[in-house]
Amino acid sequence: MADNIYFSYDIALKNLSIDEQYQLDRIFRNCKQLNDIIIENINQLITVLEERLSENKKEYAFILKNIEETDTDTTELEEKRQDVIDKMNKIKKDWLEENNIDKGGTHRLDRFVSNIRKEHGFVGKVPHTTTLVIGMRLNQALEKYLFGNGKRINFKPFYDFRYITSMAQKLDFIVNFEDNTFTLNPGFFRDGSISWKNKRKKHWKRVEQRYQNYCNNLKDGKIPIPYDKWKKRKENRLKPGYYYLTLPLDIDKNNAYIQDCIQNSEFRYAGLKRKLKNGRWTYYACITAKGKSPVLKEKQLLSFLVEELTDTYEVKIDIYGPEVELFAKSNDEEKVESFELGYDSLNKRMKTLSNIDRYMENSRIVTNPDCYQEDGQKIKGQKIHTHSKGYNIIRTKRKYQFDCHSETLKNRYNHLAKYIVTHYGANISLEIIKKENMNVREKKNERRKVLKYSQMTFIHALEKIVADIGIGQVNIIKNKNEQNNQENIEDNTEE
After folding, report:
1. pTM for this prediction
2. Which one, 10, 108, 262, 487, has least CB within 10 Å?
3. Given a cut of 50, is residue 492 above it in pLDDT?
4. For 309, phi and psi rounded to 5 degrees?
């Protein structure tokens, strides 16, 4: 089984110039245009097939309706239904033979796709192997439509086209881990789209180097050709299509996950990926490797550690303070532990969020004075209609800060949940407690702001780790205060 396991991981492409970003965006645009043209041509052929199948589909629906309505024996109706299905399958096979897409299995659309690539002028824009991969993906949708439950092939929106690959080693995307580079082949750039300045600079640098080598290797007594004549000879050789785009891979040496992927897995093929972050595309080299991923290895290691733990613990934990305090109790022993998990960084980020909220509220008051009273309180029933440009910009900043805050909070509780599972087992009864000093109003308000949604975040992290391992169960015990509040609510509803 281990030989057939594949996984993928992403390495960022950073410090890209404007020209490099333009070329990467152009590659995705060309692949998307080719994909849309192929889908449009396939849908034109499918309309012919739907016209041929229309009568059989009506008959099939009529037979199904009769089968549902009749309570007696339906063997004759089932035979008729099977005959209609056989007729429809025969029509579909004849349609495939007419359009020369009846053979090849997963590669049945190869010839169809390559012909469209030549007809619409994508020969220098999209390489042949990349177009074949696009055809393989569309073939899956076509087979689902013809012989499965799939609907008609629809257009993918531009922002959804985020991954390109050739599924072949060292063809269109070349990865070199020795130099930490990611190279794109000339098949993407043969239409003369690269700026001629960059081409000419590189070309004439090569010409000068070759002329110097020619002069250095001349025999004694021979007169070298003048540089102007040498330049005229090489001028006609400047042709588009021999441009390799080489980009740096941002491999973090301190990232244990990526280092483990590079060192302990076999590289198969690479692709180009992009993600939308803060309104901009960020590009990645998506590498497919053979072997077990570090996440799978970590799950197996966790399950091995948990199987050795036999005692069942009752764990009480206080996650609302600057230091997380843990109280564990079993039949044999009691433990008390404390952890520091970055409370100060969370506090700083929440201060910036509160400042942003204050700025947004002031902006709403200025732009919508009819919706607010003189003291700044909102009038009930009034809707805010207009926002300033500064308000929309600051709202995106607030979203980014809040996403960073939630990610740090998740990482904080993931580490804590792993520690609890590996040291106290997966069969635990957990109670989240609050200390007596939490009754102080100032501290309570401050911690409530900083650690918003912290309780459910921690519980979800713990339950996810236990579910991934597949051993044990987490039993969450509610606080006495929460139980009393729930009982009061139930009593009020009964009354």
Report:
1. 0.58
2. 487
3. no
4. -85, 120
